[in-house]
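Person: I keep going back and forth on a fold encoding question. Show me how you would write down a chain together with its backbone fold. Please set it down just below, with no commentary around it:
Helper:
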Amino acid sequence: MILAGDIGGTKTSLSLASVAEDGSVRLAEVHSYPSQQYASLEAIVERFGQEVSATVDRACFGVAGPVLAGEATITNLPWRMSERSLTEALGGLPSRLINDLTALAHAVPALRGEDLVTLQRGERQVGGAIAILAPGTGLGQGYLCWDGRRYRPGASEGGHADFAPADDLQIQLLQFLRAEYGHVSWERVLAGPGLHNIHRFLCAAGAATPDWVAARLAAGDPSAAISALALTGEDPCCARALDIFVSIMGAQAGNLALTYMATGGVYLGGGIPPKILPKLQDGAFLRAFRAKGRLSPVAAAIPVAVIANAQAGLLGAAACALEHASSHVAPPPARFFGSH
């Protein structure tokens, strides 16, 4: 039994995982917690342990930030985590931290047809590299390479690399954000807060924003409100912001396709793509994805799909833990969860 975690700036999900008879990973007791309301991951794990009863053998957590030498911070959350402190907090239970995109990458080979929505069928090459782009609270990127026997995932912090505008309007967007932030990364425009940044840019450029729209944005998560108003067509400025956002997503997904020569496919993960699926299917995303000059035919031949399984990060963390466990002969110590 594995304790699997998907740790994000907005939400932390924990689950128990085991291997089914067909070899697939099965999740049980999936619990989610608002990350900002807890002082540490250990506090959430303690809460989870009070809510479930199970004996677990090891733990693995996908973290929305870089993991270096067994230690991690979350870009959008003031936590510091380490494998040592988690192991101690869990009474010696072997615990591993991995980048959340590494976790998602571990899940990709196990995804089935019902877990995916195809945007471009392409021509999948057996053993071809796979690229992952995951916009959510932040922007995650990752990849998988074939070693002759199986896919091996790799982490990336490419979401913090320099944003590259693709047209005159995006150049103006870059200039607008540079005046505010200095350095403008892909995450500044291609994550939840990025959609709000694009909307603010359009407003500053003179786009009309009715009072009722401004009130709707101020009432909660502005990016979620912008997305909802765009999808329903209620506000032209919100619709324009989402159009730009989707084009930027397509451009960066195409960049990753060429960077990794991802003939095994490009997968869109994270919280945003499933929520804006109709916009991803209207053609703007693929036009930007394929707009690669002389290599446009290469981009057009690469499969692209949206990961629709919201628990893919947990599946990947569990798969990573199981893979790690299989390489060790001696059984690890177990930890009993439960308040009784």
Q: What stands out?
A: The mean pLDDT is 91.
